[in-house]
Design a protein that fits this description.
There is one protein chain. The chain is an alpha/beta fold. Helices cover 27% and strands 23% of the residues. Helix 8 links the parallel strand 8 and strand 9. Helix 3 packs parallel to helix 4. The two termini are 38 Å apart.
């Protein structure tokens, strides 16, 4: 049974795992604290991104011989495979730790099994301490790993009557500037921004993360265009501000399989209505972010295309997880951001 020192250490490990500036893709965020027999901290470590030492290895390197007989408190089950770095379970055995406490079992079938390796070596193992908090820290990575495909966030902007553009094409955006700034914040959390060929043809978006001065900000997500039609090379999505990929298919599963192969873990699906509908129909949307502008158009492009739903009982009914009002500025009306996730029944469609 865990004691107060181990609980405090796990909370500290969660803080270390969430260290600012650490790339979140494609690896999970992980923290580790080594405790002496009296409950004092021997060393701390955290993972700093793909190819760098894992949290356990980082802490063991700092501890040196002081790791012998210690308790390792880790936010994720120590890995059991050799990838860019060696297996952490074996490193803990070699260091002579006495006990390992971890929060979340590793959902990666290639890396799981560390707990069994540790037990086989005579190390005491306990799992599940603050497991919910650890899963929440790596929510997107965990779901993507469990499903063996990228997590898909579908973002849409709509008027009160479900329109994404006016009938005469005069409105490039129906959302406010505050909503568009918020969109850039969410883009920065993903490693793919995706649209269809029609969106590229009609709207010519750049699909980069930009700051308030419209300058590119930080490492850019991969820009992915889905669809079979040829596109002019001068479209902004193909400029040199970020990498781009044109996947000439209409199959959402094939798209996600290819992105998973490229170690992409979080897709920000921005458009348009046809591509979005294809992902919804396939049961491949994990989260919905919807910006609602407080006006009516009565006509124009729908925010989503035909979903094949003919009766109210079959409606796509995601569960609301957050509602945020984004205040207007310079005469603009406020927008409302809804964050939603599909029900368990809708999520099971993909299987």
């Amino acid at each position: 049974m865990t004691d107060h020192a181990e609980q405090d250490a796990m909370r500290r490990a969660l803080v270390l795992a969430a260290t600012s500036g650490v790339p979140v893709w494609p690896n999970p965020r992980v923290g580790c604290v080594l405790l002496a027999a009296d409950g004092s901290t021997v060393a701390e470590g955290w993972h700093r991104g793909a190819g760098t030492p894992h949290a356990e290895a980082d802490a063991l390197a700092k501890a040196g011989d002081r790791a012998r007989g210690a308790t390792a408190v880790v936010t994720l089950e120590p890995c059991n495979h050799t990838g860019r770095t060696g297996p952490c379970a074996e490193a803990l055995v070699a260091a002579g730790v006495r006990r390992v406490v971890f929060a979340q079992p590793d959902p990666n079938p290639l890396a799981a099994g560390g707990a069994e390796t540790l037990r086989a070596a005579g190390i005491e193992v306990e799992q599940g301490l603050l497991a919910d908090e650890a899963r929440a820290l790596n929510r997107v990575w965990t779901i993507a790993t469990e499903r063996q495909r990228p997590f898909v966030t579908w973002k849409l902007a709509t008027t009160l009557d479900g329109r994404s553009a006016a009938a005469d094409g005069t409105s490039r955006w129906v959302s406010s500037r505050a909503a568009r700034r918020d969109t850039h914040r969410l883009r920065a959390l993903c490693d793919v921004i995706m649209v269809g060929t029609n969106t590229v043809t009609v709207d010519d978006p750049e699909l980069t993360v930009r700051d308030e001065a419209d300058r590119p900000a930080g490492v850019q997500p991969l820009r992915v265009v889905v669809g079979e039609r040829d596109l002019p090379a001068d479209r902004r999505v193909f400029n040199d501000r970020a990498q781009s990929l044109h996947l000439r298919t209409r199959d959402p599963r094939a798209v996600l399989a290819e992105l998973w192969r490229r170690e992409k873990r979080h897709v920000f699906l921005e458009g348009g209505p046809t591509l979005a509908a294809a992902f919804v129909r396939a049961g491949l949307v994990d989260e919905v972010v919807c910006y609602v502008a407080p006006f009516l158009l009565g006509a124009g492009r729908a925010a989503v295309a035909d979903l094949g739903i003919t009766t109210i009982s079959d409606a796509f009914r995601p569960r609301v997880t957050d509602v945020t009002v984004l205040p207007g500025a310079d005469g603009e009306e406020p927008n409302v951001r809804f964050t939603l996730e599909p029900s368990c029944e809708q999520s099971r469609k993909e299987s």
